[in-house]
Structures are given as C-alpha cells and as structure tokens.
Amino acid sequence: MRIKLRICIGLAVALTSTVCMGSVRYLPGNVEAEISLKVPGNEAVDYQLHPEKLENNYFDYQMCGNDKLPVTVFHRVQERDGHMLLTVRLTAAEDVYFNYRQSLLTGYRHEDCQFYMPGFWYRRNLRSPKEAPSFHTSDSWLVREDRLSAPLTGIFSEKDKKFMIVNRLDDFAVDALSTHKEGEVILSGKTSLGFTGFENKQGVSVLSFGFPYREAPKSYIRKLTLAPAVTAYQHLKKGETILLTWQIAEGEAKDYSDFVQHTWEYCYDTYSPKPVDTPYSIEYMKQALSQFFVSSFVDKYPLVYNSGIHLRTDACTSNGQAEVGFIGRVLLNAFNAWEYGWECNREDLKANSTKIFDSYLKNGFTEAGFFKESVNFDKNFEDPVHSIRRQSEGLYAIFHFLAYEKEKGRKHPEWEQRLKKMLDMFLQLQNADGSFPRKFRDDFTIVDKSGGSTPSATLPLVMGYKYFKDKRYLDSAKRAADYLEKELISKADYFSSTLDANCEDKEASLYAATATYYLSLVTKGEEHKHYADLTKQAAYFALSWYYLWDVPFAPGQMLGDIGLKTRGWGNVSVENNHIDVFVFEFADVLRWLSNEYNESRFSDFAEVISTSMRQLLPYEGHMCGIAKVGYYPEVVQHTSWDYGKNGKGYYNDIFAPGWTVASLWELFTPGRAETFMKK
C-alpha cells in the first residue's frame, strides 16, 4: 500500500459567468493538489500540497508540502477567452520520479450529475456491463488521456443545469514504453500523456487531472477485462523543468445532449483539427482498395463472396465465412465493385459481382425469405439467428444495385420480389412502439428484443418507399423514427447498435443520425425540419467519438513509427476501446448538416475524416503491417488496450477488411443517399 502524508490543502474556484461557456476564477478554497514521488524499488510517497500566494511574480502560487520537497511546484492562473488557464511548472532540485495530481470540486452533488469523457464515457456508462468501465463498478474513474477523443472530462449537473469541464492543452508529442500495466510503473522515457476523470468526494463531484497518466480504480486492458489500477512515474532530472497546461470552463445546458453539443463545439474550436496531409487521391484509394475485390473473391461454394471477416493480418488468406452485413458487407462490396467495374471498364470486377449477386439470389435466402446473413462453409454452419442490422445492410446494398441497374435500363424483377417480401416481413417484426428487435429467428421468434438497432432498419424502409412507391414503408420508417426520438435521441442514450457488444457505442448514434437524415430527405416543411433537428442532435454524439487530436505513440510502436495521426478516426464503444474507419455515409450527413444549418464545423471535420482515414492504405512499399494490398486494417489499437493481441501501436492479429473497404468506399463516393432519393 502506498504511504500517504496528508496536509491541509487550499486552492479553489469560484464560478462566475454561465453563458454557454463561462469563465472560472481561481481563489483559495476547494482544490486538492498532490505530488507522488517514487524511489525505484520502494513504494511511492504521496505529498499533499498547499498554496502560498506570490506577489510580483510570474506565477501566482507556490505549492508547498509540509516538509521541503525535492520538487518545486508553481501555479499560474490566467483568464483567457472566458476560460481559466492553469499552468503548472515542476522543477526538480534533485533526480526524482514523479506523478502530479489535482482535484477541483465542482460544487455539484455527485448524485445529481452525469459524466462525459468523449469517446469513452457517456452519462454513467450504465449500458455497459460491470466488466467494462461503468458506474456498476465505481462512481469515480481516472483514465489515460489517449483513451479519449479529446483529453477532457465534463461533469453535468442535471439539477443545476450547469456543467464544468477540464481539458489539457499541451503539445502531445511523445510517449514512452512501460514494462508493466498495473501498479506503480516507471516509464522508460518521456511521455506527453496525462490523466483525467471524475471522482466522488464526500458526495460532491470532482474533476481530477494530472501527469503522467494514472488509471483508477481499475484500468481497462482488453474487452470486458478490468485490471488493477496503474500510476506512471516519469523521471525528472536535477534542474529539469516541465510545464503542464489545463483549461477549465463552466457553462449552462438545458440537458445532457445540449451539454455534449456545447462541449464538442468547444473542443473542436480548441484543438482545431486540420485535414491530414495524405498523398492519396480518392482515385488512388479506390484503385488500391479494388484489389481487395479481386484477391478476396471466393467462388467454390453455393454462395459466392468476398472473404472479408476473421482474416489474419499476416496472411489475409480467404476463408469459408460469408457475412451479408456488419463486418462482412458482402453485398455492398459486390455493388461497389460492380459500379466501379462499369466506371473503369473492369470486366473482372463486373464478372465477379455478377456471380455474387446471382449466387445470393439463388442460394442466399432462408426458407422464410430473410438473407442467410452469416454462413461458415468451413464448419458447414449457418447462423440460425438473424439480426435486424445485417438484414437491413443487405437490403441497403441491393436497393443501390437495383437503382443503378434501373438507371442503366436493366431490370431485375426477381430481386425486386425478394426485397418486397423482406420489407413486408420487416413490417411484421416491428413492435407497437416502432422499434425493431435486435435479433430474431426465421420463424419470427425474438432472441434479443433490444431496440438499439432500430435505426438500421429505417434506411431500407425509406429506400423501399422511394423505390416501390409504397407508403407503408415510409409510415413504418416514421414509426421507427418516433421510437428513436423517444428512446435514444431525447434520452441521449445510444446503445447496442453493434452486434458484438452491449454498451454505449458510436454506431448507435451514427445510425440514428443517418436514419433521420434519410427521413429528412423525403419530407418537407415542418416535418423535414423536425427530422433535420433530430439528425443534428444525434450527429453531435456520433461526432463525439471521433478524435480531435493526435495521440502520441512510443518509438517502436508501429502506428507511431509510420506516422499515424489519430484525428478524424473514431473510437468504437465502451467495450471495444480502439479506433477504426467506421464512417460509411456519416460524412455525407455532416456535409448535409453543414448546408442545412450553415455550420462549417460539420463539413470541415468531414474533410478531416476523409483525409485522415487514407493513412493506413496498404500498397507495395507501404503495407502498414498488412499482408495484402488493399486489405484496409480494422482494429487499430491506439491506447493501452488490446483486442486480444499486440496492444497499443498495433492491430489485433485477426481483422475484418470486408467492412473497412466498404466504409471507405462509401466515404469516397459522396451523395449516394441524396441521389437515390431524387430518382
């Protein structure tokens, strides 16, 4: 157990101005400061600090311990743009290993509060199981900054309609390897990573932050695996100085959604992410990605498909697993290859896509008429459980195929009959509240009644309305949107859209925004505005998962060595703490919102996403740790977490390029939904 030396402390904040983002004044009172010093081979000692006011000095306070310490700590407090800027200077009088920590009392009752660490923590993370970070395990959490899409923590008091946030402003340039992931860890070199979080101090919510990183009461090392707390110690040589900078602000918000919107806009303006200077044009990206369509083609089974799930990164050898949607996206890849084949006069792509579509039309449906959405020919197994998400994504792909073919004067009546039947079965599956079950069987019995995947179904219903001119499908889509508004958007509760986790996730908010975007495209007047407003509200939550800064990597961590910039990449979910290229149509949604609301942040960030997600394109001489050209990586591990193998700076050894290629292809083929709705 670490030794504790406690001393009466000072420093506090008095909160002023609460117009959106208000200033915070720094006065003696309610802030705790602490420095932890470690001698290698010995337990660390924590020293509480108290302020001594300085006069006629660059710094405002010297933070002192009860005894003379081998480190001097000074604070400078400034007001800048209505926020409080806190600069901390640490100077070593002798060689030390240190960890610095500060806690700021908000004045809000903890039980009245909801919490926010972007891309990782929403409200109280109660959708997440106790095996992942959530209030189920603790009501106080400190985490590494690189877990977060912005190095920030926010606390929102629902009772007071106020929030307070703290974010770090330093140059995030370097990271260091450590030999251990728990306990007291001495870093192998310099890092830029600190920590941030919230704590319950005697019933009052506290913003806690410091440097270098800590994680408590648990760290999170892989899916559903909490580990003991960790505290990192950095070496500071005699005479060496380090400067640390945080910004603190308070504001008012009418609800949690309003709080997230204000905070995202604040973060965007603070970190000002710029497009990544990548040399790859969209044409080059598609040319390289199209090699996946050829290399992954499998035609020796009753279903013909691109093999894109559960592949090894070091081999990319095709297997017998075909998946219509989710991580496979067989039918969307077939359409993308088909359209590209015609554009570029690629007979190989056209021939392959024809075989895929023909095989699914002949052999790809269950007895009831749903897609055989997940088939494993290696094990002679067909998953008997269907998902509304995979079924919807298959419908989406075929609708685009049929619309493209109709425009070229080619008809596919058998496909049309199949799609009508599927949509009619969707109407049977829909619940009275407008939701769709997440998982079900061929006989319509429900396996998972959760409505988190409802937005997935909304897309093909709107498309079916436009393609077949059948208002029943539009009515169903509107009922689904009513559910989304009532249960997801208005409650700021986006959950369980992904199929391999039960938690808060990016895809739920992204799909919700896309679903209401579709409805806004086919409605007018007040109805159009209503759906547009819902799209905007959900979009802020989706945006909150996307990185606004570049996390540092240590030398020897591959992703850092090849220069990956994380801005524009999205974290996945509370359970799966890695970044990926899941965007699909979301960039189109952002550009549309930008025009609809005259909000340049949306379109500007869409360009950041578009440029940043080109960085890991595997091609000869630039394979990025992937065995084959065009097989874009998936599980990009950017923090101290792994999906099972390798850890920060690398990928998991198993990946699914089926969906990554499909996502990037849609990103680089803008305007599909708007074009479809105009036909």
Keywords:
disordered N terminus, 679 residues, 18-stranded mixed beta sheet, Glycosyltransferase, alpha+beta, three-stranded antiparallel beta sheet, Beta-galactosidase, Chain A, domain 5, single chain
Question: Topology, pairings included?
Answer:
Layout: E1 3-5, E2 12-15, E3 24-27, E4 31-38, E5 45-53, E6 61-64, E7 71-80, E8 83-92, E9 96-109, E10 113-117, E11 121-123, E12 141-144, E13 152-157, E14 162-168, E15 183-186, E16 195-201, E17 204-211, E18 214-222, E19 225-236, E20 241-252, H1 256-271, H2 282-295, E21 297-298, E22 305-306, E23 311-312, E24 321-323, H3 330-344, H4 347-363, E25 374-376, E26 381-382, E27 385-387, H5 388-407, H6 413-429, E28 439-441, E29 446-448, H7 454-468, H8 471-489, H9 506-521, H10 525-544, H11 558-561, E30 570-571, E31 579-580, H12 586-597, H13 600-612, E32 636-637, E33 650-651, E34 654-655, H14 657-667, H15 672-678
Parallel strand pairs: 1-5, 15-19
Antiparallel strand pairs: 2-3, 4-5, 4-9, 5-6, 6-7, 7-8, 8-20, 9-17, 9-19, 10-11, 10-13, 12-16, 13-14, 14-20, 16-17, 18-19, 21-22, 23-34, 24-25, 25-26, 27-28, 28-29, 30-31, 32-33
Helix pairs in contact: 1-10, 3-4, 3-5, 3-14, 5-6, 5-7, 6-7, 7-8, 7-9, 8-9, 9-10, 10-12, 12-13
